Amino acid sequence: MTDALPQSPSEAFELLLSGNQRFVAGTPDHPNQDAARRAETAPSQAPFAVLFGCSDSRLAAEIIFDRGLGDLFVVRTAGHVAGPEVLGSIEYSVTVLNTPLVIVLGHDSCGAVAATRAALADGGTPGGFVRDVVERVTPSVLSARAAGLTGDDDIIAEHIRQTVDLLMDRSRVLAERVAAGQTAVVGLSYRLADGSARLVSSRGLPGAEGEKG
Description:
Elements lengths: L8 H17 L9 H7 L7 E6 L6 H4 L7 E6 L6 H12 L5 E7 L3 H12 L7 H17 L5 H19 L1 H8 L4 E7 L6 E7 L10
Parallel strand pairs: 1-2, 1-3, 3-4
Antiparallel strand pairs: 4-5
Helix pairs in contact: 5-6, 6-7
């Protein structure tokens, strides 16, 4: 059975979290994953959330949030680093598809963050385009260091917050839709061991812990 399409950022967030709670409990519903849903979504799509997350193989969005076809517009890069292609993809979903929620999903034991911390510690930099990933994560690690944050969870949370801020600062379209109450941008930190996603940062989600601006 198809869920009613969320009409607000808050409704979309509640629907997403309820799926994660089922995943954590080991009681997934596997909604919208059958032949009927495939046929329903073939002509068009109306995802209720953009999931911009790390490319880590353990962060399969539809699995950890117990969703199906047509539910999530997924954009993933190593360390959830955001360039023009990412911004354009997110803007497409919120403007053309009218998606009411953007999630930035980070996680503990992130390899991109670990590589950045190592590069800052020993002064070396990776070769190839991995260097670009490290350079984009570096401001987050330096910001955490300036705030006296040294633990893995704290640094990951800071990187998620920095990414939420970057999306809002770089994308005028996204900022305007958040200001109008049409979309919210929310940062979540995923724990690999238990599968839970906790709130780290929020823009435009009424009453959410971590709300800013």
